[in-house]
Amino acid sequence: MDCEVAREALSARLDGEREPVPSARVDQHLDECAACREWFEQVGLQARQLRRLVESRPVIAPVGPIGIQQPTPRRRRSLSWQRWALMCVGVAQIALAVVQGLGLDVGLHHGMDGTDHLLHESTSWCVALGVSMVVAALWPAASAGLAGVLMVFVAVLAVYIALDAASGSVTLGRMLTHLPVVLGAVLAAIVWRTSPAPGPAPQAAETDIVLPDNASRGRRRGHLWPTDGSAA
User: Fold this and answer.
1) Contact 169, 214 (CB under 8 A)
2) Residue 204: its pLDDT value, please?
3) Residue 143 burial by Cβ neighbours in a 10 Å radius (0-12, 13-18, 19+)
4) Which residue of 50, 76, 164, 204 sits 20 to 30 Å from the alpha carbon of 216, by its own alpha carbon?
């Protein structure tokens, strides 16, 4: 048997493939040819070393259909101090609304001229603001809308407080109850500006191929093109 044929059969044996010639004849050639025995030992040693190297490598992330590594799952990020502060202000706003809803004195006077209804509306608004602050602290994506609403509300409220304070129709205690709303507006704006904007999920982009100046891309339908118009 020729050495080239024997080595081709031995290579197929190492790869776990079917040998092109009977194994008995290959083994007989190995017993008679020292050069093929030495070649087979060296090739077998290299194959074993490569196999151990592959088995010792760490497992990588699964690969997508076109060979792009899939993104690893995002770890849940801890709350920043701005989000914690916004949550605390939201809880304080809810507590203030509960105190006001229970009828305790927060600077308003109960009467029979419609003040009770206005108090109920103010209580509902305080609850809504407090819950919105807590939600924005947990999900920063909601802080943009909350910041806009609170900024407008604080601006309008500041004008009314200034007018009522000038006429003496509002107490200092009542003005201080609006402090959580002011802090909430500032903190909501900070959370909105410091939180990363949600973007679309990363898509597996196909790597662009740099072609020569005189080459054409052609139609990607598996057709063969002349060599003078291909990327080659």
Assistant:
1) no
2) 46
3) buried
4) 204
- In contact, 137 and 83? CB cutoff 8 Å: yes
* pLDDT: which is higher, 26 or 110: 26
Burial of 126 (0-12, 13-18, 19+ CB in 10 A): buried
At residue 69, the 3 state secondary structure works out as strand
Tokens standing for 68? 């792009």
* CA distances to 4, 44, 46 from 35, in Å: 11, 14, 17
User: Rounded distance, CA 37 to CA 6, Å?
Assistant: 10
- pLDDT confidence of 25, banded at 50, 70, 90? confident
Q: What residues form DSSP beta bridges with 168?
A: none
Query: Is the separation of the CB atoms in 192 and 186 below 8 Å?
Result: no
Q: Please, where are the H alpha helices in the chain?
A: 3-14, 23-32, 34-56, 81-101, 115-138, 143-167, 172-176, 179-194
Q: What are the tokens at 193? A: 């500006």
Cα distances (Å, whole numbers) of residue 202 to 64, 72, 186: 12, 11, 32
pTM: 0.41
Quick: pLDDT tens for 137-168: 888 888 888 888 889 888 888 888 888 888 88
Contact (CB, 8 A) for 192 and 86: no
